[in-house]
């Protein structure tokens, strides 16, 4: 970061989040604010989820995206992945967390496709290339 | 020595990988109708793709972020979503055209109707995408694509009236048989063929997959600045062969067989074998690139795990998008839509989508947060902005010219 001030819209929103080893976790689809005891706002958590993104975009396009995300969700009531801001280790060209992605909830769509589509194709578990 | 070999191999791959179905179709059609009077567009296009491929490669190497990451970060989620829809559809159309090209190349070799080859070609394509490692995949088809050098040999063997061709190159106006509308339409198509958006999606994502760092910058630059212009020479040779054989007869090129015919005339059966191999390698290689690019754009917009470095089950969403894209490409071909027409449409819509891809690259290539001291030089920026203007003109003109000229007919 070259500038001292963190701008939520410019430095946080829509940036790629990666884990400790650089594995993609998702984008900063939305941000959760909290307030300190003396009433000052602070960034409490970053939120990841297509549903959250759709709601932030708003308008017809955003509503449509949120609806598709809800439809593709196995439980029908998608909650965004909430990453407390303390877990953010570094904000650069990507937002690096200080945990491994295995410790975070895997998105429902990824899990479903893994179990029902891609995981069933021979060779799906072959080592990466 | 090992480094020298790696550089040479990279350049050869870039040359062979430059030409795809769009270049083959656009260059031979243009050669037949305009001689070499549109050759300058290929030169302009090649300089443009060199400029922006280098920028995207530099951003990928220094920041580790591929192009579509930047599109969303710099244009915002909403505009980038519209961009994603446009880029994905254009890439899908190109993928379909490339699979059609593979099937047409096999038809040339076997005389079995191309529609029978479409499902087989697509299945083999998907297996390669699923199983084969990134680097050998790139190398094999890039190097086999070098077979298209046969167009250069054929052009020389045809012993064309060089002075006349040279005169056409230096007189960039439509011939008496054409008007400015068709001239403009084919200029846009040629430009789009050279600067197809998937090339930078693929190039920058490949850079991230191969874990480029600042130290790989030099190699990446050599590949771009030597490999792409030599690939452009192949494009010009395709145009030249069509210009020599078809322009005097005022014959139009509308099949892949006609694109190959000048080589067969000059070099006989052996030449034909080599040219068919070249068609196959070039279109199959480009089909792999577009198939992956379709997955890259979607996965990078949403921030999913993507690429071939992890086990497929760890990138389930990415592999699902790739699989669905191949199936959609096949479905389009199986409606019996003419692959050559699909190629022409893919070029027109590529032209429309060009600014969406190239503007964010130019912006980020100037951002010190991403690139530190490796930001654009003033000269690169002057060239970059100039090209953005050209790209914008091509994008605005593409659809009106298509309608006005009835696809240039």
What can you see in these coordinates?
Chain A: This is PRC-barrel domain-containing protein. Chain A: It comes from Lentzea flava. The complex is a heterodimer of chains A (129) and B (409). Chain A has helices at 8-12, 50-57, 59-72, 108-116; strands at 16-18, 24-27, 30-35, 41-48, 81-84, 88-91, 95-97. In chain A, strand 1 and strand 2 form a beta hairpin. Chain A is α+β, with helices and mostly antiparallel strands and 129 residues long. In chain A, the strands form two sheets. A four-stranded mixed beta sheet of chain A has the order 2-1-7-6, with no helix packed on it. Chain A has a single domain, classed as PRC-barrel domain (SH3 type barrels). In chain A, helix 2 (50-57) runs antiparallel to helix 3 (59-72). Chain B is mainly α. Chain B has one domain: Amino acid/polyamine transporter I, CATH 1.20.1740. Chain B contains 16 helices and no strands. In chain B, helix 4 (67-110) crosses helix 10 (198-209), helix 7 (150-157) packs parallel to helix 11 and helix 9 (180-195) packs across helix 16. Chain B starts with a helix and ends with a helix. The mean pLDDT of chain B is 93. The chains are: A alpha+beta (129), B mainly alpha (409). Chain A binds chain B through residues 1-2, 13-17, 22-27, 29, 48, 50, 53, 56-57, 59, 61-62, 65, 92-94, 109-111, 113-114, 117-119, 121, 123-129, and chain B through 63-65, 69, 72-73, 76-78, 80-82, 130-134, 302-306, 308-314, 316-317, 319-320, 323, 368-370.
Could you outline the blueprint of secondary structure elements for this entry?
The complex is a heterodimer of chains A (129) and B (409).
Chain A: H1 8-12, E1 16-18, E2 24-27, E3 30-35, E4 41-48, H2 50-57, H3 59-72, E5 81-84, E6 88-91, E7 95-97, H4 108-116
Parallel strand pairs in A: 1-7
Antiparallel strand pairs in A: 1-2, 3-4, 4-5, 6-7
Chain B: H1 2-18, H2 21-34, H3 39-63, H4 67-110, H5 114-131, H6 134-145, H7 150-157, H8 162-169, H9 180-195, H10 198-209, H11 217-246, H12 256-302, H13 316-334, H14 339-364, H15 368-371, H16 378-405
Pfam family, one (chain B): Nramp
Keywords (chain B): Membrane, Transmembrane, Transmembrane helix, Transport
Organism (chain B): Lentzea flava
């Amino acid at each position: 970061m070259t500038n001292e001030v963190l701008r939520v819209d410019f430095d946080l929103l829509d940036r790629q989040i990666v884990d400790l080893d650089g594995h993609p976790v998702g984008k900063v689809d939305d941000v959760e604010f909290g307030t300190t005891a003396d009433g000052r706002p602070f960034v409490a958590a970053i939120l990841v989820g297509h549903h959250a993104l759709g709601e932030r975009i708003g308008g017809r396009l955003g509503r449509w995206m949120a609806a598709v995300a809800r439809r593709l969700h196995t439980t029908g009531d998608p909650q965004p992945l909430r990453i407390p801001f303390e877990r953010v280790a570094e904000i650069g060209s990507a937002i690096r967390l200080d945990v491994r992605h295995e410790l975070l909830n895997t998105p429902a769509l990824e899990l479903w496709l893994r179990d029902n589509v891609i995981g069933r194709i021979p060779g799906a578990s072959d080592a990466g290339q | 020595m090992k480094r020298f070999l790696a550089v040479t191999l990279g350049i050869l791959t870039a040359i062979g990988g430059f030409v795809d179905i769009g270049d083959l179709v656009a260059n031979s059609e243009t050669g037949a109708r305009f001689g070499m009077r549109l050759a300058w567009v290929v030169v302009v296009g090649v300089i443009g793709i060199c400029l922006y491929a280098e920028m995207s490669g530099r951003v990928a190497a220094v920041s580790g972020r591929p192009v579509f990451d930047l599109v969303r970060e710099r244009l915002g989620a909403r505009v980038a979503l519209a961009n994603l829809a446009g880029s994905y559809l254009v890439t899908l159309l190109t993928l379909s055209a490339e699979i059609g090209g593979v099937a047409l190349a096999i038809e040339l070799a076997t005389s079995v109707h191309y529609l029978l080859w479409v499902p087989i070609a697509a299945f083999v394509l998907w297996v390669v995408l699923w199983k084969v490692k990134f680097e050998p995949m790139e190398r094999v088809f890039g190097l086999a694509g070098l077979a298209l050098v046969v167009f250069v040999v054929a052009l020389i063997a045809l012993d064309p009236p060089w002075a006349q061709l040279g005169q056409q190159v230096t007189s960039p106006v439509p011939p008496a048989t054409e008007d400015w509308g068709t001239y403009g339409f084919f200029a846009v198509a040629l430009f789009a063929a050279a600067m197809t958006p998937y090339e930078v999606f693929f190039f920058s994502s490949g850079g991230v997959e191969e874990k480029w760092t600042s130290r790989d910058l030099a190699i990446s630059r050599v590949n771009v600045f030597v490999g792409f212009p030599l690939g452009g020479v192949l494009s010009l040779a395709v145009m030249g062969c069509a210009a020599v054989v078809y322009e005097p007869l005022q014959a139009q090129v509308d099949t892949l067989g006609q694109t190959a015919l000048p080589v067969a005339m000059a070099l006989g059966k052996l030449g034909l074998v080599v040219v068919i191999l070249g068609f196959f390698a070039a279109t199959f290689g480009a089909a792999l690139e577009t198939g992956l690019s379709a997955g890259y754009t979607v996965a990078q917009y949403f921030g999913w795990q993507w690429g071939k470095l992890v086990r497929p089950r760890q990138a389930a969403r990415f592999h699902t998008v790739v699989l669905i894209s191949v199936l959609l490409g096949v479905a389009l071909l199986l409606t019996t839509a003419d692959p050559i027409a699909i190629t022409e449409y893919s070029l027109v819509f590529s032209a429309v989508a060009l600014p969406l891809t190239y503007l964010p690259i130019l912006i980020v290539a100037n951002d010190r947060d991403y690139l530190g001291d490796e930001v654009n030089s003033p000269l690169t920026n002057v060239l970059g902005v100039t090209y953005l203007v050209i790209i914008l003109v091509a994008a605005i003109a593409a659809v009106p010219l298509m309608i006005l000229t009835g696809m240039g007919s």
